[in-house]
Amino acid sequence: MELLDKLTILADAAKYDVACTSSGVNRSAVKGKLGSTASAGICHTFSADGRCITLLKVLMSNACSYDCTYCVNRRSNDVPRATFTPRELAELTIGFYRRNYIEGLFLSSGVLRNPDYTTEQMCEAIRLLRGEYGFNGYIHAKAIPGTSKELLTRLGVLVDRMSLNIEFPSETSLRQLAPDKSGQTVLEPMRFVRDGIKDNIRDKTTSIVKRTRFVPAGQSTQMIVGASPESDYQILNLSASLYSTLELKRVFFSAYLPVNSDPLLPQVTKAPLLREHRLYQADWLMRFYHFDVNEIIDEQNPSLDPLIDPKCNWALNHIDLFPAEINKVPYEMLLRIPGIGVKGASRIAKARRERTLAFEDLSRLNVSIRRARHFITCNGRFADGLLFDPASIYDSLTCEVRNRHYKGVLDGQLSLFGESGLTREASTQPLELASWAS
After folding, report:
1. Of these four, 82, 229, 239, 299, which has the most CB atoms within 10 Å of its CB?
2. Are residues 320 and 277 part of one domain?
3. 7 shares its domain with 90
4. Number of domains making up the chain
């Protein structure tokens, strides 16, 4: 098979892996080597369905020995198969870099023969890039569940970031939809990578210099949303647990795309992208605004409101804390006002030390008040023409979404499961990591 034909097959097969990260590591250009991982060291583009993808984003092989029901590359599918040799992939990456097509590599693979053999092929391709071709740019590799610790170590010192996809928010769904995988084969290597990253930190604090560092940009994971019946509450609880116990850099959410026909899979015509979007917003609140999962969503209301962002929803559910007087509330409360971000809160906190702020001052500070104006007063005054009424605020905030005809998307999203397939009772297993992998 010609190299271009392989690229066509394997680049298309990689589109379902989410990798919308910047490099996450700062390694300057080195004389005699190609590339760097400075802040602008990775190139981004967007796919047709809105996903942020990184070039070159490709599989080592789509010839997979696993039969995961949701995956287009499962062994029972009749699709064109291709496999790069390590040399082909290295030369292709360098060729693209020299033409300024790419600034980094995201490498994943189907399970070719077995996890160790696949990882050996990936390691050899990256070794050629790093050693023979002197490529010093960003590389993100998706590790294969079940790979030995020795090969994970070899891969970890070659790449900048590593991801191991947990795939589903419960062990029950993983067993049903990916019968060749188990929670243990995913969580055990994730713990191994976490411990290796901690060794980097210990070496730094004790002034011991290593020639190579293990996964310096950290690890991430991906969950498929909509292929199994877990609620947003369950998904976010698992995400919070992954951040706290495994110290992940990112948890990515990938809206389920119906590429296979299987009785265990929901029959949908559209990916639930709005649900994915709300999960990312909730994840952002947890990581940067210190929200607890149970502040955003709870067991009695386990689904995020698709019509309104989670921060606005929290504010409406805690309307007794509002209106917030912009000149008096503490910085921590400024961060909780819908529409005000970290930079905006910092500008307000600094400016109000010198003068009393009015609404026009917020505009001069480049603070957007399109949403915030519903929840704040400036010097004791509301914004002109607004009623401080939860129902009116909700109608105003959701008007744009409803006008864009998202209702049709929502109808398709919220009726994923009919009489057949997975039932909601199948996902009642507790989501603590220890029981998830049991």
Report:
1. 239
2. no
3. yes
4. 2
* Rounded Cα gap, residues 412 and 309, in angstroms: 19
Residue 46 bridge partners (DSSP): 52
C-alpha to C-alpha distance for 312 and 204, rounded to whole angstroms: 41
Is residue 435 situated within a structural domain?
A: no
Range of the domain at 12: 3-297
Residue 266 and residue 367 in one domain: no
For residue 113, is it within any domain? yes
For residue 108, give the 3-state DSSP assignment: strand
Query: 414: which residues sit within 8 A by CB, 6+ positions away?
Result: 306
Q: Spell out the alpha helix ranges (H) of 212-317.
A: 232-246, 273-288, 293-296, 310-317
Exposed, middle or buried: residue 76 (CB in 10 Å: 0-12, 13-18, 19+)?
Answer: exposed
409 Cβ neighbours under 8 A, 6+ residues apart: 270, 272, 273, 274
The C-alpha atoms of residue 156 and residue 190 are separated, in whole angstroms, by 12
Looking at the DSSP bridge assignments, the partners of residue 222 are: 252
Where is the domain boundary, 297, 332, 347? 297
Q: Spell out the per-residue pLDDT of the chain, length 438, in tens.
A: 788 889 888 888 887 777 655 556 667 677 777 776 665 555 666 555 556 656 788 999 999 999 999 898 999 999 999 999 999 999 999 999 998 888 889 999 999 999 999 999 999 999 999 999 999 988 999 999 999 999 999 999 999 999 999 999 998 999 899 998 888 889 999 999 999 998 876 665 555 555 568 999 899 999 999 989 999 999 999 999 999 999 999 999 999 888 888 888 887 766 778 899 999 999 999 999 999 999 999 999 999 999 999 999 999 999 999 999 999 999 999 999 999 999 999 999 999 999 999 999 999 999 989 999 999 999 999 998 888 999 999 999 988 667 665 444 444 443 333 333 444 344 444 456 655 654
Residues 232 and 140 in one domain: yes
Domain final position from 273, 297, 321: 297
Question: 205 and 332 share a domain?
Answer: no
> Would 156 be classed as within a structural domain?
yes
